[in-house]
Structures are given as structure tokens and as C-alpha cells.
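Sequence, please.
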């Protein structure tokens, strides 16, 4: 049975789950071919859509440049993104929503907007948009550095533990030599230890008497091995949980994309039907107006003809009556 394939969040091509990135679920081509760059005007980050493009202007700013020309500096944040008037769109919307700007606690410019919510503040400070972005970027870098440092420390600790285990194994494999200073006194006649000759003790018993700490080492090693095994099980469980969550996220993203595309096609079809109906009604209205105009013209002509005929009849009647009177 073949492994399931998952969609890239940008090009929506199907790939194995291991080939997609952990955060944005991007394939290798999208990660390498579409770098994240900053817009020259609005300073917002965006991902380039074409492989050969070197443009550093986002789509929104491109449309605004075509419509309004090159922007000027905003009077609040000094970003060159004021296409209409003296303020950029971001500052205009924030001023409408939150009121006039206040001083940023980082750059000391009057370009921060107080949302009257402590949860919206960055590290307890009221910052502008640019300072917030730089703070978040620095925080992400420190988190990444901490994660790499932890991984490096884990690897070094694993190497040290393996090295210690190897040393302990090699130490346990060595034969235990009898300490001559701790041996019992020798008989004067035969030169044999009195305890060994009298009790007929085996070498194992002598070794146990001479090295009492060897069993403690074995117990400590077994305990450490059990701890390592339990920790490895916990790590494998956490890894499987994370993998399942990542798979669920990619499936939800793919489902969201399909539903969104279906809704867009449905909206386009509805819009097309409405446009066709409106066009047909407009045509019918124009044809009816033409008919009304032609009917009004014919009615006027008939009325004019009837009035002229009546006048002619009246004139002819008056002419015939005048000679009879004479």
C-alpha cells in the first residue's frame, strides 16, 4: 500500500509528508524558488510568486502605483506608502479605528496607535508597526537559536553518556585483580593464604570480598538504562503526536482550499447568471421603450389626421350654407 500524499500550501502539488516544511507546509520547489522579501513601499513581507521575478513590490502596491503613481512618505510613520493624501492606508485605517497616534516607546516617533488593550501591547510596551515587526523577528531568531542550542546540548549529552557507558563496559570486562595488600597472612611453612587453604574459598568469593562496590555500579547502570528507555519512549510518543498534528493541519488546509475553490466557482456562476438576467431584462426594456415610442408616434399622427379632417369638414359645411342664405 502506497503512503498518502499531502498538498503544498502554495502550489498545491502532492508530496510525501516528510518532504513538506514543518511550519508553512511548503514543498522543496516553493521553499527554494519563492523567497520571502520585503516590499519597497509598504515594508510588509510577502513571498514571490514567480521563479524568475526580482520585483520587491507587493501586488497591492503595484496596483496602487498603476492607479495613483509613485507614493510619498507618510506624515506619521515615514513609510513611503502614501498613495492618496499624506497618510498611508495603514495609518489612515488605524486613525479611524483607534484615534490619533501617540509616541512609540521604541523609536520615539508619533506613529503608534493605542488600542486600549494590554494584551495587544508587545512585551508591555506600546510600539508602532515597524518596531513590532522587528521585535517579533528578533524574538523568533532568539527562539530558533535557543532551540538549536538545546539540540546541540542534547547531542553532546548523548555523546557523553555513550562514552561513559563504553568506559563502564570496558571496565567491567577487565578481570578483577587481587589486591595483594588486602590478602590474608601467609603460613610460614607452605606460603599459602591461611583463609583460602582452610575454608577452600573459590575465586568468585575472594573477588566479592575484595571488590564490594561492583554490584552498586551494575545497579546504577541498570537504573540509568531504564531511565533512558522511558525517556526515549516519551520522546517517540511526543514525535508521533506532533506528526499526527502536522498531518491534521495539512489535511485541514487542503480541505479549506477545496471548499474555498468550490465557493469561488459557485459565486462566479451565480454572478454570471445574474449578469445574463440583467442584460436580458435591459434588452427587453429597450425593445419595449421602442414600441412605446412608435405607438405614441402613430397615436399622434392619427390624432392630427382626425383633427385636420374635422376642420376640413367644418370648412366645407360653412361654404355650402352661405349661397342658400343669399
Amino acid at each position: 500500500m502506497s503512503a498518502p500524499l499531502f498538498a503544498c500550501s502554495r502550489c498545491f502539488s502532492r508530496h510525501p509528508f516528510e518532504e513538506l516544511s514543518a511550519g508553512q507546509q511548503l514543498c522543496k520547489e516553493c521553499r527554494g524558488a519563492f523567497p520571502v522579501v520585503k516590499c519597497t513601499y509598504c515594508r510588509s513581507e510577502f513571498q514571490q510568486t514567480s521563479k524568475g521575478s526580482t520585483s520587491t513590490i507587493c501586488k497591492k502596491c503595484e496596483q496602487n502605483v498603476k492607479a495613483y503613481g509613485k507614493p510619498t512618505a507618510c506624515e506619521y510613520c515615514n513609510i513611503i506608502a502614501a498613495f492618496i493624501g499624506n497618510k498611508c492606508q495603514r495609518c489612515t485605517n488605524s486613525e479611524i479605528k483607534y484615534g490619533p497616534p501617540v509616541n512609540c516607546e521604541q523609536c520615539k516617533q508619533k506613529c503608534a496607535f493605542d488600542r486600549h488593550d494590554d494584551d495587544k501591547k508587545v512585551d508591555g510596551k506600546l510600539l508602532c508597526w515597524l518596531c513590532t515587526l522587528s521585535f517579533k523577528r528578533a524574538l523568533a531568531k532568539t527562539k530558533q537559536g535557543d532551540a538549536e542550542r538545546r539540540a546541540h546540548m542534547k547531542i553532546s549529552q548523548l555523546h557523553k553518556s555513550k562514552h561513559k557507558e563504553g568506559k563502564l563496559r570496558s571496565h567491567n570486562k577487565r578481570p578483577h585483580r587481587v589486591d595483594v595488600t588486602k590478602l590474608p597472612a601467609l603460613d610460614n611453612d607452605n606460603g599459602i593464604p591461611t583463609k583460602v587453604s582452610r575454608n577452600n574459598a573459590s575465586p568468585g568469593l575472594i573477588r566479592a570480598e575484595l571488590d564490594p562496590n561492583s554490584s552498586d555500579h551494575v545497579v546504577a547502570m541498570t537504573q540509568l538504562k531504564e531511565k533512558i528507555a522511558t525517556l526515549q519512549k516519551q520522546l517517540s510518543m511526543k514525535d508521533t503526536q506532533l506528526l499526527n498534528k502536522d498531518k491534521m493541519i495539512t489535511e485541514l488546509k487542503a480541505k479549506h482550499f477545496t471548499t474555498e475553490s468550490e465557493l469561488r466557482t459557485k459565486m462566479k456562476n451565480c454572478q454570471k447568471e445574474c449578469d445574463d438576467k440583467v442584460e436580458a431584462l435591459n434588452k427587453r426594456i429597450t425593445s419595449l421603450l421602442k414600441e412605446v415610442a412608435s405607438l405614441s408616434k402613430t397615436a399622434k399622427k392619427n390624432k392630427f389626421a382626425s383633427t385636420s379632417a374635422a376642420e376640413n369638414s367644418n370648412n366645407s359645411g360653412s361654404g355650402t350654407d352661405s349661397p342658400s342664405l343669399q
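The CA atoms of residues 125 and 280 lie 60 Å apart.
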